[in-house]
# Entry
Amino acid sequence: MPNATLWPAVGEGPKLDDMRQRWAKALAGREIDAEGYVATHQHDGPAHAQGWPFPMWMQAGGVGWHFRPIGVAGYEAPPATTQGWKFAGVVDKGLGAKGWQFDLNSGPATLETPAFAIDAHLFPFLRLNCWATGLEHTKCYVEWSTKDEPEFAADRRAYFESPPDASFEQPRELRIMIPVLNQPGWKGTITRLRIGFENSDHGQLVVKSFHVACDTRQNVNNLNFIRGCHDYFLWTDDVEFLRSQMPRVRTAMQFVDHEFQTHAKKCVYTTWPGHEGRSGVQYVNGQKQIVVGQGIGSNYWDLLPFGGEDALATVYYYDTLRKLAELETLVAAHPEWKVTSAGAFNPQELLTFAEGIRKHFQQRFWNATTGRFGTIDLDGNLHDYGFTFLNNEAVVFGLASPEQARSICDWIGGRRTVAGDTSTGDDVYHWRFGPRTTTRRNIDYYYWSWSAPESIPWGYQVQDGGAVLGWTYYDLMAQLKTAGPDVAANRLAEIAKWFDETQREGGYRAYYAKDPARGSMQGGNSAGGLGLDKEFIESVLAPQVMLYGFLGFHPTYDGFEIAPQLPKDWPELTVSRIYLHDSVIEVTVDHDGGLKLRGDGKSGGELIVHAPAGARLVSVEGMTARLITP
# Structure
């Protein structure tokens, strides 16, 4: 998203920097926990506080006590009462506007839940949402009893950081995650929980909720954070931002390498509970079986069990290695930026390792029968439903070999048929604005709570034959890279025709509401097959093919690279209002290698233009530029 939203020069004067300031704040404010995991910043839900808002504990047969609503429609948990709770060392002040209120006396204090029975392996985390004062130096823990060990004991205890002073007036509560997945005593059937404060000192506590949680963390967050910081810096030349974020960038990459065993496995190897890449919806001897706890999503495609040997995350990992190498190279070459060298990565080692990842990816994830990539679970099973998004991104980011890229683009472009696919030929673009998300009907590869996929017709679910406008960008870029500019331009013309038709009929929602055969839209808590508006803000990606594809423009710290690919019937291409570093520029290219540049006269220095052999500067106005060619 930074690459789609940072370059358009929207407004004048101080308004030009509005988007930059929003991105700087968003990236610098991204929460990173003590281990180095970069949090998901989504709406709240009864799941991991730094992960995706579902699967919810209710969907997995867990337990929870919500004394006040979450506040997000569609994600509310059953309201709880105080009945059955036991407590000691506290004064019960009753339910208030924000939750259950307590005064803690000097000395030990405990809050004990009613009895229940849950499977430990399904819930690797506990979550406490609260406000607190006076407990900053308190030793806090949660302990539990089990069916086999019915009494509480210190060897079944997980300590957590004491809650910082959190004013009861602040709108958002503390969201404390307590990992129990690696506790040796967290096993079997859990029967009670008890929150303990060993040395409380006249503190106050308001408990909004306390519940078990599935592991809904996402393994792509760290990678996308690093890529976002890279893209922001190249567009803005904001050295102060880079100085502040490089330590966090390095921490984020260290977490990835350690947590996902990338150097040993040569891929993003995800073993988090529920993220093993196995499906929670399985067919055994023709009978459907639901495996609770399996198939949790790890990325944008939140119904699909990417994990295990995760092909999509590995695509992002490869790109991240290369982008981090670029940042480390720049930092090393510019000591005047005063970016710390602590924890620095060797850029050449990153690039060498990236090449090893690319070669492994081409062999490990390639399905020779279908001529495309799939993803692999921890049992070594390849899952291939014709994931167009995975394959297009593998082409665009450079993991696919030239032969693999041609095979992929011929399949998606309808020039090659894959036996067993539900959608082939022209039907791959049935929805017109882009390819189907998948080309083979999927009724058995989902997280467990999406348990009746067969009840939704093919193409009327976004992740099963539907389509998302934003990912059309990668389809166009892949076709441009492999089939050439004329094929990509023809595809773009079809998209423009579709768009014009929708606008003439009142916009997307009006257009699709007129005829169910046209498709069903998803968005705003309504399921459907087409992702176009509402939360699908990534739709802004699609037109970026003009800048990054046909113009071949990419920012660098000292200027920009350009490698145009013009269709034969486009005499020239101009992209204006490009906000690069401190200037707003316009770039025009033609078939003869001619390059025209126009600036706003505010450039603080010479822009270096890196271009292919044969390029020439025809004119430069309002700026200073120097062309470098091979």
